[in-house]
Design goal:
By secondary structure, the chain is mostly helical. It has one domain: Orthogonal Bundle (MetI-like fold), CATH 1.10.3720. Helices cover 72% and strands 2% of the residues. The longest helix is centred in the first third of the chain and has 34 residues.
């Protein structure tokens, strides 16, 4: 009995396999377009509309929303403050996160490593609201931190740190530190230990090995972790509302107020576009200055 009819040509599957591959490959691109490109285009178009009383939109294109940014210093001030607090959060997260990630990557106790990583990942399950109010309680005048500081003599008496700049910084570092640690941990873990042994055998001490071997090989992890924390910090909204007053409000809070209180969607869209353009510009400049490519940023590996 002949089986010649079972060939791909006879069954018609030759044209379906490439077509299926193209459909599978196009799925991520479709998701990116629907979730990012389409909303961005809508936001961009809305930023040129005119707001009228009652929250209605007049669909006549105008630059008034962008010109308002230059006329009213409040919004430029909020943008500068947002960049400043995001930079502070990134620096503190890097200084705290690198030693922790290094210790986790180099420890030989797998149970300790798994436990700490589980705690770090579990902290991401809590919402911003819960973490924000938790810090508001701990930093209030009768909270555990001011009371403990007064107890050891750092303060004359318990005082409230809320609302305040440093309360916001501490809460943001707490929220975004896990992203820094996990990114750096992957990068440090990928460093070939044979290179460290070779440096030791050549007479280099721990500090010299770290400066000339470990640090350069983890540069991509440092850059990617810093960019991740910085970009996430720029869009923080809940924490400034809970732990800050108007002087500590970020641009995201101002944008939210324009939508919910002022009902001025076009101006909120213009503020959002400006913030996104600043983010893109800073990312491009950072990548250019550090020499870290997009593949390295996504990989976070230990390749020099």
């Amino acid at each position: 009995m002949s089986h010649g009819t079972d060939t791909p040509e006879a069954t018609g599957w030759t044209g379906r396999v490439p077509q299926t591959k193209y459909l599978v490959a196009s799925y991520p691109a479709t998701v990116l377009v629907l979730l990012f490109l389409v909303p961005f285009c809508l936001l961009f178009v809305y930023s040129f509309y005119t707001n009228v009383s009652g929250g209605y939109l007049e669909r006549t294109l105008t630059l008034a929303n962008y010109l308002r940014l230059g006329r009213e210093p409040l919004y430029l001030d909020r943008l500068v403050f947002t960049l400043r607090i995001a930079a502070m959060t990134t620096i503190v997260s890097l200084l705290l996160g690198y030693p922790l990630a290094y210790r986790l990557a180099r420890t030989r106790r797998s149970r300790v490593r798994r436990t700490v990583l589980t705690i770090i990942v579990s902290s991401l399950w809590l919402t911003f609201i819960i973490r924000g109010y938790a810090w508001a309680v701990m930093l209030s005048s009768d909270g555990v931190i001011p009371v403990a500081a007064a107890g050891v003599g750092l303060l004359d008496e318990p005082v409230s740190f809320v609302p305040g700049y440093w309360a916001l910084v501490v809460s943001m570092v707490y929220v975004f530190l896990p992203f820094m640690v996990l990114t750096l941990y992957t990068s440090i873990k990928n460093v070939d230990t044979e290179l460290l042994e070779a440096s030791k055998n050549l007479g280099a001490g721990p500090v010299t090995t770290f400066r000339h071997v470990t640090l350069p090989l983890t540069k991509s992890g440092i850059v990617s972790g810093s960019l991740l924390v910085f970009v996430l910090s720029l869009g923080v909204y809940v924490l400034p509302r809970i732990l800050g007053s108007p002087p500590q409000w970020t641009l995201a809070v101002v944008i939210g107020n324009q939508v919910t209180i002022e009902s001025n969607v076009p101006f909120a869209a213009a503020l959002s576009i400006v913030l996104m353009l600043v983010v893109v510009l800073l990312v491009l400049v950072t990548v250019r200055l550090t020499g870290v490519g997009t593949f390295e940023l996504g990989n976070g590996g230990g390749d020099a």
